[in-house]
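Backbone geometry:

***
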Amino acid sequence: MTEPGAIIELRGVAVTYTGASRPALRDADLRIGEGELVLVVGPTGSGKSTLLRTLNGLVPHFSGGTLTGSVVVAGRNTREHRPRDLADLVGFVVQDPTSAFVTDTVEDEIAYGMETLGVEPAAMRRRLEETLDIMGLADLRERSLRELSGGQQQRVAIAAVLAAGPRVLVLDEPTSALDPVAAEEVLAALHRLVHDLGYTVVLAEHRLERVVQHADRIVLVRDGVVSALLDPAEAMALSPVHPPIVELGRRMGWSPLPLSIRDARRRAGTLRTRLSALGTGPSTGEPTAPSVAGKSADSDAALVNTDRLSVRRGVVDALRRVSLKIGPGSVTAVMGRNGAGKSTLLAALAGQLPATGGRVLVGGAAPERLAPRDRVRVIGLVPQDPDLLLYADSVAAECQAADRDFGAPAGTARALLARIAGPVDDDRHPRDLSEGQRLALALSIILAGRPQVVLLDEPTRGLDYPAKRRLVGVLRELAADGHAVVVATHDVELVADVAHRVVVLAEGEVVADGPTNEVLTGSPAFAPQVAKILHPLPLLTVADVTAALDQAS
């Protein structure tokens, strides 16, 4: 039984997967009370997802391996109750909501879970209406799931498990695939569930800049070791994984650390005055060569050249008259809300989708006309789903195959993987890696070929801040060596760190195109944390602030 006041209790929990050389989780002891939002924080591959999956019995009932100790939720021991037996108590929401959808419309998806649990019709109707209202979906009840935005799809995924009547919601990276506005919609819904309705929410999220201010308590996970429940500011003072607002607070010696933009702006008054007096601007957002800004690039010099490019997907005009020139030695970020056309643009540049109007040239040729062997040397695309690039039965085999296919020196892909993701066992099967590790492996495979044009679609999903910094280093080197890098992303902090230029799409059209500092600082939706804290100063990152202060000292 759980102790009084606790709805979740872990005692001495350890998990070791079959064939693993060390436990994925060890000696975890936690007591989580009702009506709390608990954030699980840790580096990529640290054991966060394993911890979450113990809460509804996915570990060990579906994952295999060995679980020792006990996990008890509202009196039910997960050793004795499988996930289906816990569905009325624990709702689990995966990273990609579309992968879990089993019906076609919002209303049917929410009802489906109740039907499988045998909820009687009158109760089902009442719960359906309540859930639609709680999650703000009543106006969308008859809409096709495929027509929804990413934020709406994530709210439907939450509603589908919520309707089953659980007391606990567990979410793995709920905002990783969402644009900033859609992410706020989802987090506002979770905040309402906790504060107004008394739900217990446990979630893992790498984009801490979005969620840390919402947490009641934080659990730190590192190398499978789980901390006690910590006060958020205390946890951020200790955590090797932390958002820019915490990095700035540490740099300035603020104590306690502010976790919200509002609190940080109050603390930053003196800093803003000091920086204003120095007359400083950002270093990362300034173009380093004429071709970086793209618009002025000569057509003959541009590696990417689209002229009024239009692409239709089914009945949808996914791209409309997009004209871009992207020169060598540049990193260009493509941003916009979910469904704006970012992935379509990258697929068209890679020759995977035909143009229905206009034209596209990459490396001086139409990409769809290049022979596959030639295309991979000109264009490298890492899609949102890294599994599309992973076929071998071990990490080592994937890396060796990449080196062989691209004619790269032996060990090239493996060295890139180690650089981006840190230590990863050669013998691990790719499907047993964390989301971030699989993404890093896919990145390493494509980057081993050093294509002229590198296309990355949401390359930071599942990556922690240290891994992102290592990725930034790799992308900067590619640009310095004359490659053109195009990144489609919702990760404004990544863009602030590495992009020279930002192109914003809306409904398939370019609505903004310019140097990173100009586009980001002028956008409430896409401004990074440091820009919001120091507004109106045009500084984007803690590195910008540090450089400005160091120059003055």
About this structure: The domain at 328-354+367-521 is CATH 3.40.50.300 (Rossmann fold). Residues 8 and 73 are 5 Å apart (CA to CA). The chain has a mean pLDDT of 91.
